[in-house]
Amino acid sequence: MKISVIITLKKDVLDPQGKVIHQTLDGMGFNDLNEVRQGKYFEIDTKENDPKKAKDKVEEMCKKLLANLVIENYKIIDVQ
Amino acid sequence: MKSSVITFPGSNCDRDMDVALKKFGFKNKMVWHDDTELPKSDLVVLPGGFSYGDYLRCGSMASKSKIMKSVINFATSGGMVMGICNGFQILVETGLVPGVLLRNKYLEFICKNVFVKINNKHNTYFKDIENDVLEFHIAHNEGNYFCTNDQLKEIEDNEQVAINYCDKEGSIQEKFNPNGSIKNIAGIFNKKKNVLGMMPHPERMIDPALSGEDGSLFFNNLINNLK
User: Fold this and answer.
1) B85 an active-site residue?
2) In CATH terms, is domain B2-226 a member of 3.40.50.10860?
3) Which of A53, B21, B47, B168 could connect to B26 by a Cys-Cys bridge, CB 3.0–4.6 Å?
């Protein structure tokens, strides 16, 4: 079973990399952007076949390692 | 006094720390991250470097390594644990000290001498130290200290700020903040003040032939306070 997770920075956390990407895009002519925020994406392939159990396990992984909840949010976006 | 320096894959200030600790009288042991037992220690140091190549988030992998269980137990039972630079990043990832260290505000790796003001001397690390301002060295890409407003209030209420970036005279202003840290915070304690995490490297300032001796003041004072 494959599970996809995205990790994003919380709204109030400064994202200097996102800012530079925004500026670069702006310089390339994409000048109608309000903001760019950079995040992380994980694909986790697990032996667990029960979607509920697999999702719970991945949620635990997010809380314990994949995300730092002081600054980041996680979202499980796909289970297949 | 006995000390232990933990070496993680990618640590690179572990031997400098070993030299510094021994110079000021510690009997130091190097401890591998995959060990489970911590030798009997009066001080445990998590050194600087790039543990696990800074993958995922700086310090996140190292914070889950085998030896860290013993280090966390040692710290929560009152043992002295000091994390320098990457060691500080590891400490925040364990939750032993609050907050996180983000990418530097201007996206530059910063490598230079800075001045820091000691904010709190009511602890074993800085008690009786003569100077209020110390010159230390910093070298980091992720030293931008951040915490939530609630955490900041708690940190300030409990006097957990250890040192702030400042100028030579000890004036703490935004223009002396190298990396964007909240309130120029360069180092922070846990509530009990037995755990200290800081970005600057005192072990790089122990020899006048290199860059200075304010690190010597720090280590001399520390070992005297531990005796």
Assistant:
1) yes
2) no
3) B21
Do B2 and B10 touch, CB atoms closer than 8 A? no
CATH at residue A58: 3.30.1280.10
- Whole-number Å distance between alpha carbons of B89 and A23: 29
- Residue-level length of chain B: 227
Q: Does the annotation mark B203 as catalytic? A: yes
The total number of structural domains that make up chain A: 1
8 Å CB contact of A16 and B104: yes
Cα(A55)–Cα(A77) distance, rounded to whole angstroms? 10
**What is the predicted ipTM?**
0.81
The nearest CA of chain B is from the CA of A16 a distance in Å of 6
Residues ≥6 apart with Cβ < 8 Å to B156:
none
Q: List per-residue pLDDT tens for chain B, 227 residues long.
A: 999 999 999 999 999 999 999 999 999 999 999 999 999 999 999 999 999 999 999 999 999 999 999 999 999 999 999 999 999 999 999 999 999 999 999 989 999 999 999 999 999 999 999 999 999 999 999 999 999 999 999 999 999 999 999 999 999 999 999 999 999 999 999 999 999 999 999 999 999 888 789 999 999 999 999 99
Say if residues B35 and B69 touch (Cβ distance below 8 Å).
Answer: no
